[in-house]
Amino acid sequence: MGAPDTLRATLEAQRGHMFCWVPVCLAVGVGLYFSLPQEPTPGALMGCGAAGAGLLAAALMARRGAPRVIVGVAVALLGLALAGGRAYWVSEPVLGFRYYGPVEGRIVAIDRSASDAMRLTLDRVTLFNVPPDETPARVRISLHGKMAGTAPIPGLVVMATAHLSPPGGPVEPGGFDFQRHAWFQRLGAVGYTRVPLMALAPSELGPSAFRTRMALSRHVQGLLPGEAGAFAAAIMTGDRAGMSQDTLRALRVSNLAHLLAISGLHMGLLAGFVFALIRVALAAVPWVSLRLPAKKIAAGAALGVAAFYLALSGGNVSTERAFVMVAVVLFAVMLDRRALSLRAVALAAIIVLVLRPEALLGPGFQMSFAATTALIAVFAWVRDRKVWLGPRWLRPVAAVFISSLVAGLATAPFAAAHFNQIAHYGLIANLLSVPLMGVLVMPAAVLSVCLMPLKLDWIALWVMGQGLDWILGVAHGVAGLEGARGLVVAPGPWVLPLVAAGGLFLVLWHGRSRCLGLAPLCLGFLLWSWAERPDVLISEDGKLVGVMTPKGRALSKERGAGFVALNWLENDGDMADQNTASVRWAQRPVPGPGALSVIALGGKREMRAFAGCGAGDLVVMPYEPETPLGDGCWALTPKVLRKSGAVALYLREGGPPEMITARQISGTRLWNTRMRRRFQ
Asked: Are residues 450 and 352 in the same domain?
């Protein structure tokens, strides 16, 4: 058989399995949009959408079947158009300058920052002396000083004197782009206040889901105090404000943080418990079970409970994604189709990408679908090959072990890439915690809600608390083990696409040629092992500089810019804290003749005392210089950094430094130029 015949036979073997590639092609189009260096015009996006729709319609109407490549290209073009349309759809004003003054708005979200400060998101925003059409739709302020312990009322209209600034760009070229994230959240400014909030009007939300959610959270934490109560409130309502940073850190290090987020596990456990409970209850009544479709009724009831859970938990991206996946499974049950299949996962991915294309870039989407796809593929293989899992009493234990192992391996590359962290004992922690979550914690949560009208929910919450105390004990115990947490270097831009492409080809392709997926998979990990970190990093405001030394990155400040410092060190795979890294600054080797010498000026006093610089010197200034610096001096001032964003320098032997800026990587896009058009 020749090569053309072999190729034809290989493609023919994929017949009936190509639907699973639709979300992959859609994701390619979405990823292409976000990787463009220039924002496409609305006309160009409409052209892509029209071309994609035309190609897809022509392919579907072709009598003998159109080439599958044409269908893939059409879906990719539609993905690009959907992502661009979504970016224009959420367009809102972005603050273009630093603002200090009165801020008025309605509280629509309450959470905590990485520094453990209470944080409020306000809509219906009013800023002093800022026109309404230039005022952000939403702002987020952290409460410091006297306001640190405040527990605001959801929906309350408040006013405070606050510092606001535009959302910041990536902390380094190619890093996480908070400007892009804030754009899709319609968040036009972030800041803080140190003065008390002034209530201007009572809550306007009425019996809304947000107010109900916060009331339920306070009720749960009142009956179940401590970390267990905060954990219970988080998994029942999505309110994490009561969780301490130590507990959050322990959950992350032990790879149990997914138990805190309302995701597919929680939705699946809740819907599965309600489905089983109602089906057993209906089966217990023979007259009903013989006359009514008990299985479909149970699926419909579970879907309703899952929808209520979605509304109660705030409906964030991860919860919406989990609900879509659960809904697809339950609809399949009601339509007498196989519930757990790769087609169901593909349909859920299509729905999520159509509704929120930006979710593709988030770790939640990537890890959730990676775990689900891998689990279904592995258990389908176990079923088809009739793999023996031991005696009947041992099979549930084997299933839990396989689930934890497969999900951990599938999500590990994405977790390491996004969080620079590997939980070495995550499998042990999950084996000790996940079963308890399914058989005790989530059923007790459902029972507590049912008992609330009778004021007996404290019984179920007590039971729930016992399970959560065990999980928290496991988290702290595992996190305290030596070597529990490992840091890895941030990967390059091609690593995750190659790893994802290889993994998807291994799972979705049929036949022996699926082994070709190992090539991009191995190439991705090889490129990761060769990842090169910048020799010099400069923050976008010029207030922090990091220089790589033999001992690790040396930082120019021991305090301030903590978020930037933490990200730099984690991306280096360095476990040192900012204080330790700042000690390296004074101990860094003196550059040799002709080498780049980095000078970081910390404030106005240092700038006034600065005597000047010469050729080969790089001076980073947090303020504009008042006098000329002289010839041969390379200076990065706030004016330069505002245009470039964060800067990375790579020092080459015998050549000039290679400079890469955040703007070069992120391009000229809606989320980083809208403020320039409005205010400059």
From this structure: yes
